[in-house]
Description:
By secondary structure, this protein is of the alpha/beta class. It has one domain (2-190): 3-Layer(aba) Sandwich (Rossmann fold), CATH 3.40.50.360. The chain contains 6 helices and 5 strands; from the N terminus they run βαβαβααβαβα. Strands 2-1-3-4-5 form a 5-stranded parallel sheet, sandwiched between helices. Helix 1 (17-31) crosses helix 6 (165-190). It is globular, with a radius of gyration of 16 Å. The chain starts with a strand and ends with a helix.
Amino acid sequence: MKAVILLGTLKKTGLSNTETLCEFLAERLMAKKVSTEIVKLVEHSILAGTYFDMGEGDEWPGILKKIEAADIVILATPVWWGNFSSETQRVIERLDEVHDEILEGKKSRLEGKVGGIVITGDSDGAQSIIASIANFFNAIGVVLPPYATLSVLWEGQAKGKSTPKAKLMQKYEKDYSKYADKMADQLKASVRRK
């Protein structure tokens, strides 16, 4: 069983709260025998557009292959002004062609995949982000099971804070272990055997 986490952090270098939370969740998934890969989107050249391949220099087709090969697809984003990051928006835009195929009467190439959502921030916005991503998953045939979201909204993650990675992990371990474990269980249990 495979999971891919599409990490929408805006940080190319340095500590990323969202990346740390993804690593925390990935450990939980791997402990349950789910092979997990984190794709840090900002490290790839993902061209603007709404098609699977936008031409020369576009690395999205390779990322799409990882999504298609996965059983579980998780979108992970920080909160920016009450919304998801521009990197996460880019994923939604690039998967729009899946919706186009559905409108043409074709079966979704992502139908039956199980979705999850990871969010970090220091203020509210998680509920509207979950609603938007859940709506998008629904439109392209990705199943979002109950308890398949992990949101950490904490002042220690505020922009400009330098909370060490060890302290972030300690916070996640102390306060979010049971939620991460439940999410991992739900994601794994919801995958349809082929």
